[in-house]
Design goal:
Blueprint (H helix, E strand, L loop, with lengths): L1 E6 L4 H13 L3 E7 L19 E5 L5 H11 L4 E4 L6 H6 L2 H20 L4 E7 L24 H20 L3 E6 L2 E2 L8 H10 L4 E4 L5 E3 L1 E2 H14 L5 E4 L5 E3 H12 L6 E4 L14 H7 L7 H14 L1 H9 L3 H8 L11
Parallel strand pairs: 1-2, 1-4, 2-3, 4-5, 5-6, 6-11, 7-10, 8-13
Antiparallel strand pairs: 9-12
Helix pairs in contact: 1-7, 4-5, 6-8, 8-10, 10-11
This protein binds nicotinamide-adenine-dinucleotide and thymidine-5'-diphosphate.
Thymidine-5'-diphosphate (TYD) binds next to helix 6 and strand 8.
């Protein structure tokens, strides 16, 4: 049996990871420690909440009471996969402080928790945004590319990666760092580009494209990302850094959006060019050769197929995204969980 602690498992990537783990590793038990910020949604995990191998603990990673609650639920852990973060670049430009608290102090707190509790493996789920931006003809980000973050979000994630490196060097913590490109797929919060565009287009609302829309992102399906995280947790070299991405997903935003509208059967006249994001990174591109060679990982989902499947998912799960957009999803925890489970403050 392998005992997993996942932080931020009620968010987009974390919830898909919990589902993948329970499906692919029958001997796994999972505790999901999540503060349920605006981005956390337990409806994302409705289909696994009755699984006896799964436990949810509400708590802030920077709060020692939350660690105790998680430790009580898990009875010890073998692996910690650290997803919990503030993740939206635009919000980080508006107010960086929650990003510093969760992404920097919270990561240090989880590193200390792992060390004190003898957790054998620590996976830091990082981002390619720590490398900054690329010109159109520059080679893709390698794991030894300079760390040059441009947004407060990226700077906070870069700081977290450096703290993970320091814990590995100083204390011998068996940590690995993954740095992934932009993810897409089911359960993504509709403030991010693709779910915002899909749900707005489905409602015939305008589609706000920042600046000229020629910023390039390297899109990867969330399941491909999560398969890489699982491989890194199980087979990653201690101290290893793995870039994840670099399949067939590199596209300017406007090109991707037009592909999406063709799939949805919606008109391009919905597109509105709006003021550009401050300090907007122009291009991300991933060289994943280290992950391919050392982890034996390779992406499986072509962007065209993944986009179609994702559109289908949002069409079939309109109730999910409408509850997110209206704010009704916030009630799910209260009605379904708070009566039954102890949260980090010990409340039932
Ligand atoms: P998300 O915003 O959808 O979810 C974040 C989750 O973390 C939420 O459930 C939230 O409640 C929880 N959380 C936030 N602050 C917390 C705290 N203080 N204590 C406990 N839980 C807290 O994020 P996501 O898109 O799923 O991203 C997950 C991770 O993957 C992040 O670390 C992010 O930096 C990284 N990443 C994301 C992408 C992407 O394209 N989305 C790409 C590369 C890396
Ligand atoms: P986003 O999903 O916020 O991810 P990131 O900033 O981490 O790459 O944005 C993806 C791209 O889409 C990015 O270049 C910004 C752009 N974008 C828009 O043009 N309009 C929008 O409304 C949003 C949210 C993003």
């Amino acid at each position: 049996m392998t005992r997993w602690l996942v932080t931020g498992g009620a968010g987009f990537i974390g919830s898909n990871f919990v589902r993948l783990l329970l499906r692919e590793r029958p001997d796994a038990t999972v505790v999901n420690l999540d503060a349920l910020t605006y981005a956390g949604n337990l409806e994302n995990l409705r289909d696994v909440e009755q699984d006896l191998r799964y436990r949810f603990v509400r708590g802030d990673i920077a709060d020692p009471l939350a660690w105790e609650a998680a430790a009580l639920q898990g009875g010890g852990f073998d692996v910690l996969v650290h997803f919990a973060a503030e993740t939206h670049v635009d919000r980080s430009i508006g107010d960086p402080f929650p990003f510093l608290r969760t992404n920097v102090l919270g990561t240090q707190a989880m590193l200390d928790f792992a060390r004190r509790n003898g957790i054998a493996r620590f996976v830091q789920v990082g981002t390619d945004e720590v490398y900054g931006t690329l010109g159109p003809d520059e080679p893709s980000f390698r794991t030894d590319s300079p760390i040059l973050p441009n947004s407060p979000y990226a700077a906070s994630k870069a700081s977290a990666d450096l703290l993970v490196r320091a814990a590995a060097r100083t204390h011998g913590l068996e940590a690995v760092i993954t740095r992934c490109s932009n993810n897409y797929g089911p359960f993504q919060f509709p403030e991010k580009f693709l779910p915002l565009m899909i749900t707005n287009a489905m409602s015939d609302q305008s589609l706000p494209v920042y600046g000229d829309g020629m910023q390039v992102r390297d899109w990867l399906h969330v399941d491909d990302h999560n398969r890489a995280i699982l491989a890194a947790a199980e087979r990653g070299r201690p101290g290893g850094v793995y870039n994840i991405g670099g399949h067939d997903g590199e596209r300017p935003n406007l090109v991707l959006l037009k592909e999406l509208l063709a799939i949805l059967g919606k008109p391009e006249s919905l597109i509105r060019h709006v003021e550009d994001r401050k300090g907007h990174d122009r291009r991300y591109s991933i060289d994943a050769s280290v992950a391919r060679a050392e982890l034996g990982w390779a992406p499986q989902v072509r962007l065209e197929d993944g986009l179609r499947a994702t559109v289908e998912w949002y069409k079939s799960n309109e109730g999910w995204w409408r509850r997110v957009k209206s704010g009704a999803y916030r009630e799910y925890y209260e009605t379904m969980y708070s009566g039954r489970l102890r949260d980090a403050e010990g409340r039932r």
